[in-house]
Amino acid sequence: MEKHKPTREEALALLHQYNKSESLLKHAYAVEGVMRYCARKRGEDEDEWGIIGLVHDLDYERFPDQHCAMTQKILEEHGWPDAYIRAIVSHGWGICSDVEPESTLEKTLYAIDELTGLVTANAMVRPSRSVMDMSVKSVRKKWKSPAFAAGVDRSIIQKGAQMLGVEIGELIEDTINGMREVAGEIGLQGDSAEDTGP
Ligand SMILES: [Fe+2]
Ligand SMILES: [Fe+2]
User: Fold this and answer.
1) 78 vs 34: CA distance, rounded Å
2) Which ligand approaches the C-alpha of residue 88 most closely?
3) Which ligand is nearest to the Cα of residue 30, counting in written order?
4) Ligand 2: distance of its center to the CA of 154 in Å?
5) What's the rounded mean pLDDT across residues 23-33?
6) What is the pLDDT of residue 42?
7) What is the largest CA-CA distance in the chain?
8) Is there a contact between 58 and 15 (Cβ–Cβ < 8 Å)?
9) SS percent in the chain: helix, strand, coil, step 5
10) What is the residue-averaged pLDDT of the chain?
11) 110 alpha carbon to ligand 2 midpoint, in Å?
């Protein structure tokens, strides 16, 4: 029997049930935004890609030592489809899971997860504190400087790009574009936009 496809509302409710940290919530929205952008670009199921991105770190705040494994348990209890769970667990390949990314969706998630961190860190040091005016070139520069956002593992991004068969530059461009679409939610729209917010 095929399990029901979760809606974004369900995914969002779960995310908020398990995550209170502002930075983790912003990371979830950033990854969702990029996954949606990449799905659209490839003519894939935008909702499926987005929802998987949204909850990929569901367990991290409460169960950091059981990352991926607890998300699997929680989502199984909620009757999520195996394909969604597999994709989510595969983002921790070689770190907290032995599930290797196979589908384009899985490889994309694996490749862009860390990259959203580098783009966010880059935005924070810009005068605009924004992704709206960010160039691929500026991210490339930070990429080459290992001391900048040292926690961002470039080798994982590199491996992900190789698996996808895309150049790093294209991956950076997609990540910036995807994050622009959710710039308001992740606080990277720039000062002027924030001032006029509700
Ligand atoms: Fe993770
Ligand atoms: Fe993540």
Assistant:
1) 25
2) 1
3) 2
4) 14
5) 98
6) 97
7) 53
8) yes
9) 60, 0, 35
10) 95
11) 9
Q: Which of 185, 153, 177 is nearest to 38 (CA)?
A: 177
CATH code assigned at 39: 1.10.3210
Number of domains within the chain = 1
Looking at the CA of 27, name the nearest ligand: 2
Distance in Å, CA 56 to ligand 2 centroid: 6
In a domain, 53, yes or no: yes
2 Cα: distance to centroid of ligand 1 (angstroms) = 27
168 neighbors 158 (Cβ within 8 angstroms): yes
The answer to whether position 37 is within a domain reads yes
DSSP string, 28-40: HHHHHHHHHHHHH
Q: Which domain holds residue 100?
A: 8-184
CA 113–ligand 1 middle distance (angstroms) = 8
Residue 195 has pLDDT above 50, yes or no: no
Tell whether the model's pLDDT for residue 197 goes beyond 70.
no
CA of 177 to the centre of ligand 2 (A): 18
Domain-embedded: residue 45: yes
